[in-house]
Amino acid sequence: MPTLTKLYSMEEAALHNTPDDCWVVVDGKIYDVTKYLEDHPGGADVLLEATGKDATEEFDDAGHSKSAKELMQDYFIGELDPTPEIPEMEVFRKEQDTGFASKLMDNVVQYWAIPAAVIGISAVVAILYARRK
């Protein structure tokens, strides 16, 4: 029967990076090595440097023995969550294409002096034309 293990994100594992609370990720598994820091043959600094990232390569390069790998099981607390982090979606509002009439009205409001001058000149021309007759 399969054993259920707790899943942790890499971000969550990276938060445990102090001598009082130290987690290490190796081969997709998370180990709480806080109690082992003093006993680690390479020193506590080696384990503290391995926090916050996947330390599988460093672990393999160190050439750990079979007994060291068996000892790790005592500190196993969970697995790295294999699902990728999905970034939060940003929503952008597309500017609506306004028609010619609304653009014209926007310009009229912004530049009111031009339409006022056109209306004034038209009124003067109309009055002069009416007097001529």
Report on this structure:
The chain is an alpha+beta fold and 133 residues long. The chain is 41% helix and 14% strand.
Characteristic key phrases:
6 helices; 133 residues; heme binding; iron; Flavocytochrome B2, Chain A, domain 1; 5-stranded mixed β-sheet; alpha+beta; metal-binding; membrane; heme
Number of domains: 2
Report the strand count: 5
Poorly predicted runs are: none
The first-level CATH class name of the largest domain: Alpha Beta
Shape category: rod-shaped
Mean pLDDT: 84
**CATH topology name of the largest domain:** Flavocytochrome B2, Chain A, domain 1
Main sheet characteristics = 5 strands, mixed
CATH superfamily of the largest domain, by name, is Cytochrome b5-like heme/steroid binding domain
- Tally of helical segments: 6
Major sheet: arrangement of strands: 1-5-4-3-2
Question: What proportion of the residues is helical, as a percent range?
Answer: 40-55%
- What integer value in Å does the Rg equal? 37 Å
